[in-house]
Amino acid sequence: MFKRMMALCLAGLLLLAVNAVYAEETAEDELPDIGDEQVIEDDVQDDGMGEIVGQSDYVSPDVKGLTPLYTAKVIKYSTYIYADQNESSKALGSVPRYAVITIYRVFPAYVLAKYEGVSGFISRTRINEEVSVLDPENTPPYGVTLTRYVATTTGVAKVYVDPDTRSDTFPIEVGAGSKVAILGFNGSFAKVLYWRSYGYIDASLLKDLMVVSHTDEPMSDSTPIAAFSSFFAYNNGSELNDGRVKNIVRSCESMTRVMQPGERLDFNNQVGPYKANNGYFPAPVLVDGKVKPGYGGGTCQSSSTLYNTVRQLPGITIVYRRPHGASCAKYLPMHQDAAVGNDSLNFIFRNDYDFPICILAESTGEGVLTIQIFKAD
């Protein structure tokens, strides 16, 4: 396994060299004059379906019989407690700002919570990120998504709102040959995390199903100990979005590596510099609150996907991380992103296991980025 991972790392270095030569040859003639600046926050247009809840994922607002998991403080403004995971649903009660709520379940866009005897759903945008875990030994940290499987698509795969080919579909389709992290199965459909929603992929379009072993002793050398996927638009007619996709694929080459015990990974140093001569392309970024082209746009999705992968592992310590502003990145659940691009926007973590880990980042450039972590020999 270790040799296979090292071979992938060497292949990535060869691709890096090819990309660098190509970028140097084309930077002056084909790329717009946007300066030599680094990424200042990723910018992604909302696809309008980031908080859809299908019928199969309906949950009652009642918390009877459930175990309380977390406590959190409502921030800035008072908020309503809703009957559904939708702010247009009936308001069951309200919570004043800075009040503490008890959380019983966490969903991509909402938490099922209770305040002064009233239970229901509260948007994750309304609570402070500093959530307290009531039972750390048996409850994962707030926001951690534990995936159970990884598989490869055999053809172009639609992502359905419900586990039914007659249901609505999300805008992004996954290209053939793409790795996808799976939360579980509902009948003949694989459940995935799609932006701030759950989605379903027809399992008949998946092969090479691999179990994710969330332990220090994986079942085999090919069993990952953590995995995570995030979805992105492609082939949408936008040249800048094409650049964003290329940057995500390019960043996979640099993220794929082995980390020794005690070693740190500084994302900006490892994946950057975000410049044309390092294989990066112009893509939409936010600079001083304004959208403009910037080299390396999209690498924030790469860093955020890596952040969600390493957070599944108790032997990894997050040294430094910053979100994308108050609303965080829309392509992931609230509070689950990691912005990169300059000294104040960076993602740094340390391998505190007593064994090496191997990071494998993969994307065909068609809709999904998947990162797996393995125990290396």
Description:
The chain is of the alpha+beta class. The protein has 2 domains: 2-47 and 225-375, no CATH class; 55-133, SH3 Domains (SH3 type barrels, Roll). Helices cover 17% and strands 30% of the residues. The chain is built from 4 helices and 22 strands. It has helices at residues 2-30, 239-255, 267-271, 299-310; strands spanning 70-73, 79-82, 91-95, 100-106, 110-115, 118-123, 132-133, 149-153, 179-182, 184-186, 189-194, 197-202, 206-211, 226-231, 257-259, 264-266, 282-287, 290-295, 316-321, 347-351, 357-362, 368-375. β4 (100-106) and β5 form a beta hairpin. α1 runs antiparallel to α2. The relative contact order is 0.18.
Write a brief caption for the model.
With 377 residues, the chain is an alpha+beta fold. The chain has two domains: 2-47 and 225-375, no CATH class; 55-133, SH3 type barrels. 17% of the residues lie in helices and 30% in strands.
Flag low-confidence runs: 6-39
Largest beta-sheet characterization: 5 strands, antiparallel
Mean pLDDT across all amino acids: 88
Q: Secondary-structure element order, as H and E? A: HEEEEEEEEEEEEEEHEEHEEHEEEE
Multimer state = single chain
User: What helical percentage do the residues reach?
Assistant: 10-25%
The percentage of residues in β strands lies in 25-35%
Secondary-structure blueprint of this entry?
Layout: H1 2-30, E1 70-73, E2 79-82, E3 91-95, E4 100-106, E5 110-115, E6 118-123, E7 132-133, E8 149-153, E9 179-182, E10 184-186, E11 189-194, E12 197-202, E13 206-211, E14 226-231, H2 239-255, E15 257-259, E16 264-266, H3 267-271, E17 282-287, E18 290-295, H4 299-310, E19 316-321, E20 347-351, E21 357-362, E22 368-375
Antiparallel strand pairs: 1-4, 1-7, 2-3, 4-5, 5-6, 8-9, 8-13, 10-11, 11-12, 14-22, 15-21, 16-20, 17-18, 19-20, 21-22
